Amino acid sequence: MSAKETSSTLDTEPIKNYTHFLEIPLKIVGCWDWFESPKNEKEIIINNLYFCLVLFVLINVPVTLYVHLYTEWVDVMTSLDKLADCLPFLVSIIIVVYFGLYRKEMYDLTKFLQREFKYRSAHGLTNMTMLNSYKTARNFGYFYTACTMFSVTMYVIPEIINRWNRQPLQSYIYMDVVRSPFFEFTFLRQCVAQMFVGLAMGQFGVFFASNAILLCGQLDLVCCSLRNARYTALLRCGIKHSVLAAAHGDIQGDELYNYIYNAAELQPSRYHYDQKMNHNILNTKTSFDIYSREFDEATCEALRDCARVSDVINAYKAKFERFASPLLVVRVVQVTMYLCMLLYAATLNLDMVTVEYLVAVMLDTFVYCFYGNQIIIQADRVSTAAYQSAWHTMGVRPRRLLLNILLANRRPVAVRAGYFLPMDLHTFLVIIKTSFSYYTLLVNVNEK
């Protein structure tokens, strides 16, 4: 058996849960119930108590900081670094509260994905599965969560060093944090609060990126199925796959660099989407005329299947945008202000900590914009796939259906923050430019 055959994904088992890697981190930060469908009052109480505990820990730090600013307030410019410290906590509180209020919508979104997304493409000359896009989303989730935990660890280590040197904690709480048990309590509160902040902001990024990757994977399937629509019809009518591959194997040239995550394989598949094919109609005919009208009805059915999958993608994108859009606005505003304040802090005192914060915030913003841009790119390729679907061999009815699919996919598919700001690479540059503009304004105001 060749290496190509052993690496084939066509006979792999469908993914039962595409987003299982999100659940535990979201549960830890209170964005996902520990008991998704509580069966008794005890489980309901546990869900509510844990959610309140997370909010208490997160709210405690901004309140403490407010007291600190109130007692030692000089002016805005002097306290700018402390105001910047408060922004991540405020955004984390908003994220946790939002997930708590719209938990049902989040569950509906994930259930819609599990139920409606296809694992396999249409039975065509080339075939693909969602395995690669699922693995990419899962690996990104694990990697980003690990980075979040690493940043939390880097926050904890200096406090441990302070304790080793018998120095007080870097805290805004007015109490003796050198002696026990005040030190242990304050240290624990700071570590848990920092963990919740990292998970709240980091897991929303993972949530957005993983859903965007899976959405792109489904768009890959649509492009593959649409490009193979005529060949799907021939195969459904009993044409042998090897004969069709010998005559039209150049389809691989059209598919080159047209898929982001999944890979099309020039191998026969036993499935049409997620339904197993009838072996009685496979591999029976060895001669065919691709221009024959006898294949038009099967071509129409193949195009209708593509349109159904495309409708599922559009419906999921609308649900996903409706859920994520308000939080994306919050993140864009927070990042713009945070970068501005960090740049100003770097002007006053440039150190490695500030530089690391700047890089981390820009990379975090880049995640949203990059994966949002991936959706736009792959959705735009649906029209290219329709043009490469051997439309010149089809009759009038299939061509009309193909034209309807083209018209339905004419509008750009983008996830927008606040339903007006598309999350793409251009938006990333706009955020950076806006932050720098506000930074120069702060510098000029301070000089005057």
Automatic annotation (TrEMBL):
The primary site where this protein sits is membrane
Q: How does it sit in the membrane?
A: Multi-pass membrane protein
Please provide the record's keywords in A-Z order: Membrane, Olfaction, Receptor, Sensory transduction, Transducer, Transmembrane, Transmembrane helix
- Compartments reported by the entry: Cell membrane; Membrane
Under the heading InterPro entries, the entry gives:
7tm6_olfct_rcpt
The transmembrane segments are 49-70, 82-101, 140-157, 327-346, 352-371
List the Pfam families hit by this protein, alphabetically: 7tm_6
- Entry's family note: Belongs to the insect chemoreceptor superfamily. Heteromeric odorant receptor channel (TC 1.A.69) family.
What name goes with this protein? Answer: Odorant receptor
Q: Which organism is it from?
A: Loxostege sticticalis
